[in-house]
Amino acid sequence: MPAKVAIVAPLSLLAGRACRAAVCLALLACLALPACRTGQPDVTGGAGEKRIVKRGLVVLAQFPDVRHDLHRTYVLQRFSEQLNTFVKEMSYGAVSLDIDATPDWITLPDSVAKYRIPPQNLNVDKSRVIKLIDDAMSAVDPAVDLPSYDFIVLMLGAKFQEYGMVGLCGYPGMLGWMSEGPFQTKSGRVVGNGVAIFTSQAHPGTIFHDVAHVLGGVRDGKRMVPCLYDHDLQAKPGPAAEVFTTSIINLGYWDPMSCHYVKRELPPAGISSWTRLRLGWLSESRVRTVLPGEPAEVLLGPLEKASSAVAAIRIPLSDTRYYLIENRQPIGFDRNLPGSGVLIMLADDTVAECRHGQAPVKLVNADPSVPLLQGAAFDARKKNLFVDAANQVKVEILEQAAGSAFRLRLGRP
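The structure assignment produced for this chain is given below.
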């Protein structure tokens, strides 16, 4: 038997049939969550797409002074089935996960108080996150080749009330990001592409959110997949749920990179075309580019369908600014969205993170009278027209065609 097999057990052998999870946003506990199965055969087709396997290592880590009843089979089920199912659907079947796991729980050397952090991202003592990663990675068998994994997860045997957060990305994230190399512990162990940290209540949407930071990686000194909620608003004092709700001003509930789920008892909604492009999961061949003012009529298929010939429309305003248009329908994981219709987003690639009132992508809100961007989608009825006269952009939704597609007319205002 190869040495690696003796050290880390393949997830397929460890995962049981329990399939429930819980957490409210990145800051709250939540109720049990049903398995993330959609039963949509045409969603994850991706015919002709290159198949990519991303390897992950789950490190089970517990505190000496915290009792927990978190079972390894339950933890690993969330990665083998829930996370893997979500990734495959979001990538149209082009990406899947191969997960290994430490066979036993690693006990950290210090009490949870030595690692505890506050729920506000901007208030976190980074030295505590470094200590947690250092201590956990030092306890992993030296024979495990950490840099060979595309992502590493620390699953803590603790609740968010005990540790302080439900989930976070240690690197690239809380500890910054550098294009010149991966994170390295004080002991000299290289963590590989990055590490995410979760407590026992982490919702599948939370798990994807922080793993996606690692999978997106770093380019030109920027995270390819940043948080899409506003960090400054998230750091304000007050009840965690209320404060976090005020921070989802850019994409609302329409992408788990903004808000991990719409309802805590449901799986996460699908990701936007912007996030798919950043992850490399939406082929440019399925993105129709239309110049400002250029007359065009486009049949825009549902973003979730791999069979949609045009899954997104791009209207470039400059080398770095552009509109993205997508069609979100109750298909697959998008059944969990707050609504359906045509979303129009304004993207700016010069913005790295959601700070100081700026964001790399923002929704155009079709109906500001509905709170939390839940009415942001356009349709073929009352909300069928968008005009940006300054940039010579006009988008008119003519009709909803067969197969949940929308026929759009673009041109000069």
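Interim note for the steering committee: Confidence is low (pLDDT under 50) at residues 1-48. Residues 285-411 form one domain.
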